[in-house]
Write a structure and sequence with these properties.
Its EC number is 1.1.1.100. This protein is α/β, with parallel strands linked by helices and 251 residues long. It is built from 8 helices and 7 strands.
Amino acid sequence: MFALTDQVAIVTGGAKGIGRGIARVLVQAGARVVITDIDEAEGRQAAGELGVEFEALDVSSRDSCRHAVQAIQERLGPVGVLCSNAGIFPQAPLDTMTEDDWDTMIAVNLRGAFFMTQAVLPGMREQGYGRIVLTSSITGPVTGYPGWAHYGASKAGQLGFMRSAALECARDGITINAVMPGNVLTEGLKAQGEDYLREMAESIPTRALCEPQDIAFAVCFLASPEARYITGQTLIVDGGQILPESFEALK
């Protein structure tokens, strides 16, 4: 069950972190994976290590998305799975946040999901099958964090986009869903230091930080043929992080 044998799968932002974890699990499920990233050096290195293909891509550009999908389809055939994972998360307090800070965040995280979805839809409609999985976040749709108002807006916006897009695609055999990670042990999080990681783990009921593969397994399920009757939905993967009313509940 949940096999993706010979499915052509695109993972945006696949050079590292969650995206790389997703690519690894999709390969294990039998998919023909193409990771895309704006960082060509890291992207090609990751592709080589995982034994998958690489395509350079700037998700904030509609032309770049269309050209990348076209190139992938010409080489490998119709795209059956899109994991729209590319995202950025620079902090910026409200009082100093610039228009460029806001626009860049929205362009990559939200507009990128729209451009990539739009790029793969014609091929998915033609074959009457498709699985689109967005990487959203608990930050924005459920929780908030100082300095991430623009990030939260982009991630909440992804879910609003997803629900209406899912309705438009439902009769074409295409599902669109989202995973909502909590704190994932990626390169960016590790850079915060051991004290930060220990404190963060203590705020999670499982007392452990999420690994990229934990998100990837959820993505793999939503990308599978067996998930055909699930669309427009979200799956929180956070070790129970958002459950406690207060720290008292974790004692």
